[in-house]
Design goal:
- Helices cover about 50% and strands about 15% of the residues.
- It has a 4-stranded antiparallel β-sheet with strand order 1-2-3-4.
- The protein starts with 5 loop residues before the first helix and ends with a strand.
- About 25% of the residues are buried.
Length: about 200
């Protein structure tokens, strides 16, 4: 049996925010491999977070972020209790998402918010781009391009600007696992200097 040191457990706990016993168990199961232990904890965290997704989130924060006096973001993120809303973990998440919105300029909150006429217009453009290919190939290409469209324009599907290995929904899910409460990005609006009018609030 692999011997797990107290320092290794402590390091894993600081890295993941998981409990001491969970960290020790993950290290034992991974044979002392630190990265595999992190993967195990993330997998379990995602499962834990999924169970919390249906719970009501009516507390939280409304936050603002201004970038060089040229881009402004207003953002509402909800959690279940005022206690969690006041924690550094939650405030850090809200700040990171607001900064991401300023940098990545999402047009929608989730893909379900994209109007059907916009989706159909995108599909028509994609089909025209590959009209010379067999029909079955065309549809696969169109679906792939549409998925890329969602990744580019929908906040929760966008790649996190501070970590290209994670999407915004992954960042939120990991925080849910850490704080033990459901977390929901409720709405945001992004202003940019020189625009005729700010974008409409994107709500969930």
């Amino acid at each position: 049996m692999t011997t797990i040191s107290a320092d290794a457990v402590k390091d894993l706990r600081e890295k993941t925010g998981a409990g001491m016993m969970e960290c020790k168990k993950a290290l034992v199961e991974s044979g002392g491999d630190f990265e595999k232990a992190i993967d195990l904890l993330r997998q379990r965290g995602l499962a834990t977070a999924a169970k919390k997704a249906g719970r009501t989130a009516s507390q939280g924060l409304i936050s603002s972020y201004i970038h060089m006096d040229k881009i402004g973001v207003l953002l509402e993120v909800n959690c279940e209790t005022d206690f969690v809303a006041r924690t550094d973990d939650f405030r850090e998440l809200v700040k990171d998402i607001a900064m991401h919105i300023a940098a990545a300029s999402p047009q929608y909150l989730v893909r379900e918010d994209v109007p059907q006429d916009v989706i159909e217009r995108e599909k028509e453009i994609y089909r025209a781009q590959v009209a010379n290919k067999p029909p079955q190939v065309v549809e696969k290409i169109v679906e792939g391009k549409l998925e890329k469209f969602f990744t580019d324009t929908c906040l929760v599907d966008q790649v996190f600007v501070k970590d290209p290995d994670r999407k915004i929904k992954d960042v939120i899910t990991e925080k849910v696992a850490k704080v033990g409460e459901n977390i929901v990005v409720r709405r945001f609006v992004r202003y940019q200097l020189g625009e005729n009018q700010p974008s409409e609030p994107k709500t969930c």
